[in-house]
Design goal:
By secondary structure, the protein is α+β, with helices and mostly antiparallel strands. The protein contains 5 helices and 14 strands.
Length: about 290
């Protein structure tokens, strides 16, 4: 590890994952980013997507909601070649959206701009009971509108491909920057040995039982627990021919070293068991937080 940046082996990991409702994993084609991801990707559609989401959902934004914490992450997955649209994965929604307009219109009813994406996929289906006193118009504005999903006909449901996200944000903290490439290589090696004919982030396959997505992502909190790994198990995945016990869930692990990768793959991805020694937290398909 870099001098002066030790790994914290003392604090218990369980409960160190910050609660969130969804993670937007933006495809940038880069393997590292500026410390503040909204400062990166100037003139590129993926950078505009980051900034647009922060503008719409961040403090003071049109859809700001303290009870709807959407985690926005950059990833190394290949980016869109368009200058006006970007691509992203959604978890635990388990979707890949290949074309998202990055235009943020000041008009509330603009056709298919970034606000359409937010309303279709990122707002909560039900508001927190503490928001019952809000005016009905405000409540309606902050509630998801699933009928708008039809504005994204290219969206793909991730049913079978497991997803491994590794924090590799060296521009933020070199502990993850050093650890991530080594973990990425080991996850790819072991997953291929376990029967996944393609394991990585080449962008050629969105969903297949033979493919596993492996990508580097930006800061998710807890660099002192590097390596930080998130494993998303898709809802249609099987374990030994039976329904996967962790189907539709995301499991966060910390203090992961290359020697731990085989165990995480065999236990969590292949068998559906949580490795408690590395468990930071988890999320289910409904956005509820998992604790053990």
């Amino acid at each position: 590890m870099p001098e002066g940046l030790p790994i914290d082996f003392d604090q218990p990991l369980n409960g160190t994952m910050a609660a969130y409702t969804q993670q937007v994993v933006i495809c940038t084609g880069q393997r590292d980013w500026e410390s503040r991801i909204e400062d990166d990707g100037k003139g590129q559609s993926w950078g505009e997507l980051v900034r647009g989401l922060k503008k719409l959902m961040g403090r003071g934004g049109r859809y700001a909601d303290p009870f709807n914490n959407v985690l926005v992450s950059n990833s190394s997955f290949p980016s869109s070649s368009s200058t006006s649209t970007a691509s992203a994965f959604l978890f635990p929604g388990f979707k890949y959206i290949p074309s998202i307009s990055v235009n943020v219109s000041e008009e509330q009813n603009a056709q298919t701009d970034l606000a359409t994406f937010v309303q279709a996929f990122l707002l909560p289906e039900q508001l927190n009971p503490m928001q019952d006193s809000l005016p009905e118009s405000k409540r309606a504005k902050l509630t998801r509108k699933p009928e708008l999903e039809s504005s994204f006909p290219g969206a793909i449901d991730i049913q079978y491909s497991p997803v491994v996200l590794i924090c590799g944000h060296g521009g933020r903290d070199m502990r993850c920057g050093v650890m991530a490439p080594v973990l990425e290589k080991e996850f790819s090696r072991v997953l291929r040995a376990r029967g996944f004919s393609s394991a990585g982030g080449d962008g050629n396959t969105a969903d297949s039982p033979e493919h596993a997505h492996i990508g580097l992502i930006s800061h998710v909190g807890g660099h002192k627990y590097a390596g930080n790994v998130i494993v998303y198990i898709p809802p249609g995945m099987k374990a030994g021919g039976s329904p996967h016990p962790l189907a539709g869930k995301g499991i966060w692990y910390g203090r992961v070293e290359p020697k731990h990768v085989q165990g995480i793959i065999d236990e969590t991805i292949m068998s559906g068991r949580v490795v408690l020694d590395h468990f930071r937290g988890g999320i289910d398909r409904n956005g509820d937080i998992l604790r053990v």
